[in-house]
Amino acid sequence: MMDFASLVNPLQGSTSKFDFSTGNVYPAIGRPYGMNFWTPQTSESPWLYQYADHHFQGIRCTHQPSPWIGDYGHFVIMPVVGNLMTGARERASGFRHSEEVALPHHYQAHLRRYETTIEVTPTERGAAFRFHFPTTDEAAVLIEPFPGSTKISIDAEAGRVIGQTNANSDGVPENFACYFVAEFDAPVQAYGVFENGRVYEAQSALEGSRSGAFVRFSTQSGQPVTMQVATSFISVEQAQRNLQQELSGRSFEAILEESHQVWNEILGHIQIDTQDNDRRRTFYSALYRTLLFPRQWHEYAEGGRQVHFSPYDGKIHDGVLYTDNGFWDTYRTVYPLLSLLFPQRLSEILNGWINAYREGGWMPKWASPGYRDCMIGTHTDVIFADACVKDIPGVDWQLAYEAGLKNATQTGMKTGHFGRLGLAEYLQCGYVPEDRVLHGASRTLDFAYNDFCVGNIASHLGHEDVAADLFARAQNYRNVYDSSVGFMRGRLFDGSWESPFSATRWGGPFVEGSAWQHLFDVPHDIPGLIDLLGGKSAFVQRLDEMMATEPAYEIGSYPYEIHEMTEMAAVDFGQYAHSNQPVHHALYLYSYADAPWKTQQHVRRVLNELYTPDTLPGDEDNGEMSGWYVFSSLGFYPICPGKPVYTLGAPYFDEAIIKLPEERELRMIARDNSDDQPYIMQRLWRDRPLNQIEIQHNDLLEGGTMICSLGTPSTR
Ligand code: CA
To answer: What is the architecture of the domain spanning 4-267?
Structure first.
């Protein structure tokens, strides 16, 4: 089998900062959907690994889904030699990228200060570490949680460190903790605990706000020291059980080999053929990013029973749970990709969200690990509708419907942690008035789409009256379109428009964008939107205008220039701000107005110019930005999750073989493929000409070969 994992660059996107994102991600060394990721840390901030940084502070056990959401249950592991300095900056060592190995299943760095090499390979709930120390009696490994109440203890005889931390960034009940157990294979020569820079030699336990532990080894034998660590959100005993189940009695090499195989197997579901190694690396790096979130949160009790601590009610429940997901982003590409490649996994994930609903009473809007207030809309409505219309098995549609209907009809939390903020006003006015609730126009557009999605689930269950009502509400997008300016526009409670209007002003009625980036936010009624904008040719003109208008912006209601503005300004894609999600379907809209060649042209440009093996166009957002690349490069795109269709683009690679469920295979072939002529001349699907611009999910799922002959049409 080809070594797909070796093509992944986990460091991609790690040259990011608060005010400019090339992904805002860290190298996630973990298993697909793993409960923990292990990442080299160069900073204690949410920008935890920066490629340009020179100081290695340790390997962090992290659960952070985004720097804007923050980490929880996190702690750092660091080998040192000699005098103990416990602070992250004080203990940090210089390292070189030329001596670094960064793969999904294996990370390694050489710490020059300590002449020590650290290695880690992950399991789903733990990891194996290997430390290659110089020959010394002063080797030590530190384990340090982040601020938050902490308990830590050392059993020197057993070579074991046990700890717990409630470090978090919100979204947890009072009794939340991450428990961990670490076991060393070398005799512990000395040990101690530390807190706030004070070291307590030979003390075996400490309870405090950030108490850490260290163990010392003699390395005169010349052997590396290995450590196995596992975590739990349930208890120390469960952490020990996780360690037993996943790590005990196995060598570092054996676990590394298994991790490697797991990644090769899952990445091998799509095999691409291209002469361009950068594109190959970009593709597999993207595919890897789509396979990390949402993370598994359930664990396995005695006898293999799935069990989880609920961040929604603080209790232990049977069954699955997943977390760390921003649905405003992920519904667009991550879930549709799951529906095609891994419907069983998708089913399990959806059951996790249904358990969240059971335990907390509402679907989360942004989960990490429990309810968080971030972004707008209730987009679990979309992922359930998408799965429902695609017949994903094993989902309780009745409960999914109940949860969606609750989003559509009941007021959620005022702080916005769940439910739709502005729902009452939306029901009263048919739009969310900007003088009552911020981002009123964007909320209206999202709510209308969410209504369409819940309507689809209602219809599936035979509740046609409810569905009809929701489908009528799905037309509410029209209520924030102002034909006098030709844009969606903020509208006030009294029915008047917010004035003055500016198409380039960010914020206010729009979330993370201006009227330009939100003009096309109606994925569920494209013919209606085309009519609203004056018909097909006028519609194409508006899309052209978006691409051609200078990337001008005013910071509007934002207190400073947010990074999405800067990222739009940095590239030549006009007002098409690919660095953020609202426009992600927009290029495919050309195809609905008889200009599919413009879809093909612009999508090829985005693939070529905005993604590299080292950088992404903007925030990665739990696999969404990468999911766009995966779909678009394969030659089709889920334009409206909640409908079982994909819009056809043009394949980017000479050939792609997609392994589908039940041993089926989809082959996408591009003949005469080149950047100069990325246009479809002829499309054959199972040997017959295919002239539609959409293809049904079930049709793709049956497998077959699509041959696209590319070229330059004489008339376009
Ligand atoms: Ca984003």
So the answer is: Distorted Sandwich (2.70)
